[in-house]
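Data card: per-record layout.
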Amino acid sequence: MVRAAWKFGAKTAVILGTGLGDLADEIDIEATIPYRDIPGFPRSTALAHKGRLVCGRQGSTPVIMMQGRCHLYEGYALDDITLPTRVLVALGIETLIVTNAAGGVNPDYCVGDVMLIDDHINLMWLRALKPETPAKESADPSLARRASKRVRLYDAALATHAEQIARRNDFPLRRGVYLSVTGPSYETRAEYRAFRRMGADCIGMSTVPEVLVAAAAGVKVLGLSTVTNVARPDAPQTVSAEEVVEVAATTLPKVRAIVQGIVGRASGRP
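The structure for this 270-residue chain is written out next.
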């Protein structure tokens, strides 16, 4: 269905998280496909997730952007929320950029920072109704075998290039560990302390299932978290979903620079 709407192949795809959906409107759009029109695609209900597949070009480079994603806390099974990534793989992508809004647990982080995901801690399955990994749920049984062989999920060369882009654009790019939980509730004070001791720098409710599926398929992955709040266990604050969207949007110029640079790299430009 996607190929019928847009016949040009793209080697790079971007999954846009909370507050970053406007990046998709900045490319030269050639096709826009609502998720509801794609057979089997889950429909996003999260705030500020438009639920559209946007296909077009950045300069002369074809690119696919997912304007929003679906989450376990919306009631979907793992097989549902990983279907879009498997569709991207079937369309022939070789590089996937995943973005999200996350809470910072590293006390050195500041609201508005962008963190390069160096690795992740997967706690999503603790409360999931279906404990299997996306690779085991996939219709392609070879994904499970390939996933077990991957030591590094996030591509080192892409990470280095992202850091270079940040330096050229004169903004700090944090580098750390993303911890994923099922959600949708925010963490308790005790959980914040525990997660920090585990080595987490940011916490979120997405991204990991998509990364596992993409990496298992041999796709190179770059992950970016926008820090929308920083945990202060001894002085806890209440953060609303609207505030998360608002703060995430302020990081748009930083994420834009990295995404555009990585997409340009895919076309051979520096």
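Known properties of this structure: The longest strand covers residues 220-230. Residues 44 and 69 are 6 Å apart (CA to CA).

See the next section for split statistics.
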